[in-house]
Amino acid sequence: MGGIKIDPPEKDEFEISLFGPGFGESIVIHIGNNNWVIIDSCIHPSLHDPIPLDYLKKINVNPVESVKLIVATHWHDDHIKGISDIVEECKKADFCCSDALKSDEFRTFISAFGDSGIDDSGVSELYQILHTLIERKKTPKLALANRIIISESEITSGLNVPVFLYTLSPSDASRILSIKTIGTLLEEEFKIKNKRRIVDPSENHISIALWITIGSYHFLLGSDLENRSDSQVGWKAIIEDKNKPVGKALYIKIPHHGSYTAHNDKIWTDLLVENPIACLTPFQLGRHRIPEEKDVHRIYSKTNLVYATSKFFKPKKIHRESAVDRTIREMGVKLETIYSSMGQIRLRFKPSSKCNPAVELINGAIELKDILSI
What we know:
The protein has 374 residues and is of the alpha/beta class. It has one domain: Metallo-beta-lactamase, Chain A. It has helices at residues 51-58, 63-66, 77-80, 83-89, 104-113, 121-136, 154-157, 172-187, 189-193, 234-239, 265-270, 293-300, 322-330, and strands at residues 14-20, 26-30, 36-39, 67-71, 94-98, 141-143, 147-152, 163-167, 210-214, 217-221, 249-253, 272-280, 283-285, 288-290, 305-308, 343-349, 358-362, 366-367. α4 packs parallel to α6 (121-136) and α5 (104-113) packs across α8. The longest helix has 16 residues, at 121-136. It starts with 13 loop residues before the first strand and ends in a 7-residue tail after the last strand. The model has no long low-confidence stretch (mean pLDDT 84).
C-alpha cells in the first residue's frame, strides 16, 4: 500500500478513510483516543489481511486493542469479504449488523448454508462471525432506524467534542420485507444447495446507512441502500423520518457506487450541506461498471467535490490453451478477472479547531471526473 503516510492520527484528530479496489468497499474511522470503527471489509489480491487490518497495522495501530466496533452493513460479497477475520482478530470490538438478521428465518438460513461448501462468501462470513460471537458469549449490536450505537461525551471522546454514531436503517418495513425474502430462499432449499452461489434477491432492503456527528460536523455513510417507490423503505423512509438526527452532513459516502438505483434528490437537499464532499467506490466486474457516465454527470450536478477510490481498468485478454478453454466451457464456469489499485480517500482534521477537513487521495484515488478517462 505504497504512498500512505505511516503515521496514525493524533488522539484529538478525527479520520475517515474509504477504501475500494474496484470490487469491494470498506471504511475505517478514528473517533478519538486511538479508538477505531471498521465498516464492512474487502480484500485486495496482493494482501494477506483484509484491507482495514492491513491499513491499521501500516500506521502502527494495534487492531486487537484499538478497534471498538465492526459494522457489517449487509451481506453482499463486495462489502463483507474478510470481515470474519476482522472480528476474530479484534477481540475487544463489538459487532453490529441489521436487526433483520436476528430473525429465526435468518438464523435457520445461516445454519443451513453457512458451512455447506457453497462458494458464497457473504453467507459463510456471517456464519463464522456468529460462531465467534457465541464462543465469546457476546451479543451483536442490532441496527434499526435512528439507533445510537456509539455515544461519547466531550470528555471521553478524545476529540474534545461529543461523538455519536447512529444507524439510520433498516426501517421496520425493510426488516419485514427481508424476513419474507429469506423465507422464500429457505423454501427453495433444494435449488440453492445445487447452486455455486446464493444470491439475495431482496436487493438492498436491509443495508445499514450510518450518520456520524462529531461536535458540529456530520457525516453520512450510504452503504448500498437503494431508493424505492415505497416510502416505508430505503432512502425515502430515512428522509421522511421526523426522528432522524438533526443537521446536514458535509460528507457523503455515496450509496451503491453512484448507481441511479440509490439516488434521491432529497438526500442532497435535506441531508447534506450545499456542495458537500462526496466519495464513492467504483464497481467493476467484467463489463459491468458503476458508476456509468450518466451517473457521473448526475453526481456533478449536485457537488463538484467528488472523489473515487480508483479508475476503471482495461480488461486484458488472457491467452490459454484451447483444451483448457474447452474444459472451462464444458464445466459451465464463467471466469471474471479483476484488475485495480487499492485506492484510499482519507480525511483527517481536529473538530475542535473549526477547520474543514482536507481530502487526501492515496494509491490511485482520483477526482470522479477522471474515472471516464481510460
